[in-house]
């Protein structure tokens, strides 16, 4: 059942407030308690279901005698964002140990969320061609930044489209460095070290996709990336051998 309430004049909510009270009790070390803590600290969206009436109790005084006291249900909160928060773009560069650029790609970020407690903020986004997703949590209290990188399914994507992002993801490992920058213009600030736990191990995937991109240069048929989980090791090695041999094929006539 859904109640829709409309204000009949500008000060209606002052003349007739709609009080809502809620009590939420979840074990702090359980997944629901952790999700609620993430919402409070970083503004991450959370949805928890409770059917026993022991963890969620709430009441609401709606106009017309509606509302009442309730137990259990589904609690959805967030994402908690400032009113002026907007999506934004970044450039992610990978540098070697001597600060020389190895690869770069564009990242589309969602509006930043902020914890109600003021303890931290959270930024999430994805490489512009869907190669990987990224999450950055900044904890102001612990003065720590946690970064999570997750590879995405490349099945059906065009090899040349995903190569920039894939080269960044494959090089996302120590001793390389990462550097975030605006999408355009010069970049002069230094890079930051990459934690060892971020290594996605995409070196072999990169070589296969590079081989497919080279094959695409020699055919008018559109090549897409297959489900790499079904590609045998021998088939992948054959593609890589073609890449190493530079595909000794005739150049298409113009």
Number of helices: 5
| Largest β-sheet summary | 8 strands, antiparallel
Structural class: alpha+beta
Low-confidence stretches: 249-254
Helix content bin: 10-25%
For the residues shown, what is the average pLDDT? 88
The tally of structural domains comes to 2
Number of strands: 13
Question: What best-fitting shape do the alpha-carbon axes yield?
Answer: elongated
Order of secondary-structure elements: HEHEEEEEEEEEEHEEHH
**What portion of residues belong to β-strands?**
25-35%
User: For the terminal residues, how far apart are their CA atoms?
Assistant: 65 Å
- Radius of gyration over all CA atoms, rounded: 25 Å
Keywords for this entry:
254 residues; alpha+beta; 2 domains; eight-stranded antiparallel β-sheet; three-stranded antiparallel β-sheet; 30% strand; elongated
Written description of the protein model:
The chain has 254 residues and is an alpha+beta fold. It has two domains: 66 residues, no CATH class; 157 residues, no CATH class. The chain is built from five helices and 13 strands. Strands 6, 7, 8, 9, 10, 11, 12 and 13 form an eight-stranded antiparallel β-sheet that branches. Strands 1-3-4 form a three-stranded antiparallel β-sheet, with no helix packed on it. The protein starts with 11 loop residues before the first helix and ends in a 10-residue tail after the last helix. The C terminus is likely disordered.
């Amino acid at each position: 059942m859904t109640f829709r309430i409309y204000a009949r004049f500008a000060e209606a909510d002052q003349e007739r407030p709609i009080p809502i009270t809620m009590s939420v009790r979840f074990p702090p070390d359980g997944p629901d308690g952790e999700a609620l803590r993430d919402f409070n600290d970083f503004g991450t969206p959370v949805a928890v279901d409770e059917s026993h009436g022991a963890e969620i109790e709430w009441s609401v005084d709606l106009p017309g005698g509606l509302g009442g006291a309730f137990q259990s249900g589904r609690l959805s909160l967030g994402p908690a964002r400032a009113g002026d928060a907007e999506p934004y773009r970044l450039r992610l560069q990978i540098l070697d140990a001597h600060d020389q650029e190895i690869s770069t790609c564009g990242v589309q970020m969602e509006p930043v969320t902020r914890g109600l407690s003021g303890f931290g903020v959270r930024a999430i986004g994805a490489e512009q061609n869907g190669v990987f997703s990224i999450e950055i949590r900044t904890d102001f209290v612990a003065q720590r930044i946690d970064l999570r990188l997750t590879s995405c399914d490349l099945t059906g994507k065009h090899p040349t489209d995903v190569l920039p992002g894939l080269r960044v993801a494959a090089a996302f490992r120590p001793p390389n460095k990462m550097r975030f920058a605006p999408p355009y213009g010069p970049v002069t600030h230094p890079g930051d070290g990459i934690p060892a736990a971020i290594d996605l191990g995409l070196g072999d995937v990169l070589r296969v996709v590079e081989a497919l991109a080279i094959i695409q240069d020699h055919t008018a048929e559109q090549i897409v990336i297959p489900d790499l989980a079904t590609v045998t090791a021998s088939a992948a090695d054959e593609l890589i051998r073609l890449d190493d041999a530079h595909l000794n094929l005739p150049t298409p006539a113009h």
